Predict the 3D structure of the following.
Amino acid sequence: MSTEAQETPKSPATGTTQAETSGFLTRVMVTGATGFVGRYITRELVARGHKPVCLVRNQNRFFVQARELGADRFEAVGGDLFDPAGLAKSLEGAEACVHIVGIIFEHPLRGQTFERIHVEGTHNVVEACKAAGVRRIVHMSALGTRVNATSRYHQTKWRAEGIVKDSGLDWTIFRPSIIHGHDGEFMRLMKSFVSDTTVTSLGFIPTPLPVIPYFGDGQNRLQPVSVKDVAHCFTAALSRPETIGKIYELGGPEKISWKELYRICRETIPGAKMWKPLISQPVWAAKFLAATIMKLPILPDYMRFNTAQVQMSQEDSVCDIGPVERDFDIKLRDFRQDMASYANLIV
């Protein structure tokens, strides 16, 4: 990887750069930097004058992924949430931690369960911050997280929030709705639903996909939020002490049902099959599939769903965006307009 200085990348959220660091932190430890949201947050940190120190399992892969940032504008430390040495090294000299690691699918044989990643992983990050003297932490939770939540996903997110809130650190927590962007798994799934007539199973067998399925009556609402807006808020929180000790729910400006979301995607994404009907999948049938067929390697990961996702789709995932727009001086992007601007980039 070249070590020559490169032009500071523009902020994905604002399209501008801020090379000056007055009022900003210097080194920010980041977990989950190789993921969809993590890539945008890392880029936003660089554009805003921070130096992200990313805890990653595969350093070589991350270097290739992040080469556009400029070699002198970030660091990568090998390790994960369960590697004390890696955590300690990534927090050396850091002034803040941005913790966004989370999973939507469990892989118990790989040690990836909601309990382990969300709860134990967050505990390890918090304790490592304390040991390193890093007081500032910005934590990724999820909209719908609450005590006595229906899904284990939300239950473990709630417990992770408790660990952060009880840590004694200077924390800010975000609870985003579904996060969208042209290179995210969610929009890739939407494109497959509305555009493809077959999907590859077992790596080579084409399986018909003649309909656009949704769970239940499809009337529960959500507020898709742009990944660029999420990155802006996470990064802006670092320089806004007034956000310490606050939980922000984060969504787009419009509340739309799942059925309406699918219609919007079918009307907007290039190559969509307008003839494909929207078909309800009974909740009981969806849960049965999630517990059986969806656990087998017959579909690509982005086409799978689990019981937690079925459960979460049957409750509204909406919020008041007023506090976020006020405290972060941002006008959150409209889902329809934003998707129309990048629809031809979805792969």
Notes: The chain is about 35% helix and 15% strand. The chain has two domains: 27-180+224-253+316-333, 185-219+257-313.
